Amino acid sequence: MSEVTAPQAGGGHNPEAAVRRLAWVSRIPVRWGDMDAYGHVNNTVYFRFYEQARVEWLEQIGYRVHPEAEGAPVIINAECTFLRPVTYPATVEVKLFLGEPGRSSVMTWYELRCVGEDHLYATGYAKIVWFNPRTGQSVPIPDALREKLLHPE
C-alpha cells in the first residue's frame, strides 16, 4: 500500500510526524438513530465508525477480538477531529492507516468521508497496545502480526 504523512492531530506525542500505510477501507451505513438532537451524527458515533473499521481489519488479517485470546488489542488513547457534520442518510467510508509497530503497540489513523464525496468529514487516531487479557499487562506484538503490520496487503 502507499505511504503518506499522517493527518494533523493533537495529543501528548507527535502522531502527525509518522509515516502511515493504508491497511483497510470500510464502508458503514449511517443509521437514523446515530443522529442526535442537533440533526447530525453524534460525536460518539465517529469513534464507533473507527472501531468498526479497526475490528474488520483485525479480523481480515486473522485476529479475532475475543476475551479468551492469549493476546488481544486494546486502545490506550483515541482522538477525533470533527471537520463536517455527517447526517442520515449516508454511508461513511473509513480509511485505516498503520504506523510502524513498537514492541507492543502500533499507531492507527483514520480518515472519514461520506461515499461519493471527496472532502474529509473527520480525522482521528488511536494507539493500539497488544496485551494479555488475563493479566492486563502489555505483551510483545506476535511475530506473525508484526509482519502484517509492516506489510499490509
Explain what this protein looks like in three dimensions:
With 153 residues, this protein is α+β, with helices and mostly antiparallel strands. It contains 2 helices and 6 strands. The chain has helices at 43-60, 143-150, and strands at residues 3-5, 19-29, 72-82, 91-98, 105-114, 122-131. Strands 1-2-4-5-6-3 form a 6-stranded antiparallel β-sheet, covered by helices on one side. The longest helix is centred in the middle third of the chain and has 18 residues, at 43-60. It is globular, with a radius of gyration of 16 Å. The relative contact order is 0.23. Residues 5-13 have low confidence and may be disordered.
Percent of residues in beta strands? Answer: 25-35%
Q: Which class do the helix and strand fractions yield?
A: alpha+beta
The separation of the N and C termini measures 7 Å
- Give average pLDDT, whole number: 89
Main sheet makeup: 6 strands, antiparallel
Strand sequence of the main sheet, in spatial order?
1-2-4-5-6-3
Kindly state the number of beta strands. Answer: 6
Helix content: 10-25%
Query: What Rg do the Cα atoms give?
Result: 16 Å
Shape descriptor: globular
Instruction: Pick out the low-confidence regions.
Output: 5-13
Task: List its salient traits.
153 residues, alpha+beta, six-stranded antiparallel sheet, 2 helices, 6 strands
Which helices and strands, and how do they pair?
Blueprint: E1 3-5, E2 19-29, H1 43-60, E3 72-82, E4 91-98, E5 105-114, E6 122-131, H2 143-150
Antiparallel strand pairs: 1-2, 2-4, 3-6, 4-5, 5-6
